[in-house]
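Async update (no meeting this week)

Hi team, since we skipped the sync, here's where things stand on the single-chain job. The sequence we agreed to prioritize is pasted below, unchanged from the tracker. I ran it this morning and attached the output directly underneath so nobody has to dig for it. Comments welcome in thread, and please keep replies under the output.
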Amino acid sequence: MVYLLIGQDIQAKEIQLKKIKQEFLPKELQDFNSDTLYAKDTTLKEIQERFLSIPLKSERRFIVIKDAQSLDEASRDFLSAYCKAARKELILVLDFERYDYKDKFIKDMHACATIMRYRETVNPDAFALSRQIESRKADLALRLLNQLLSNGEAPERILGALRYAWEKQGTGAKESRRSLKLLLACDIEIKTGRLKPACALEKLIVSLCCFAQPPR
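Output:
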């Protein structure tokens, strides 16, 4: 009964919201049994009040919380506890712009929610990093990586940007498989804590520079 929609593809997420509503609510009752809240403008008290509302001529109510990454700590604690014993009469959708696998709130929700991932806007600097790798300029690529991390760019977003850029390059099948294998290995090393994120990304960049096609 709890869904997490993560990403910045607004149109795709709206289509998914419509599908979920159609699955659980009669069309003629959707407007009466649906609430949309915006995290920045919503307090814990307001969320709790909506949760206590009774469905109107329906078995279920539908609540969407937009920009869920901006929820305050009290609201996060409440929703984490609720998710563990979610009521079947309430469909809760949390709409996040981006995913941070270190975020305790998202980790808690993972265990009891349906996760749906959508495209995220890729930082242009990450594309610059991809171009340095494609040109086999490992030294410049590593310097740019250090700059991105120093600027506060999340390692998982850098990794996602590299994956996105590499898939768009249209390289040969053999090289593409090898590169995606390296990207997956880096993702696993970060998530399992085998390597610190910066070290895992540095290792990835050096490996990709070795395999990248030389510029024409």
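Quick observations from my side:
The chain is about 55% helix and 10% strand.
The chain has two domains: 2-117, 124-211.
Reply here if anything looks off.
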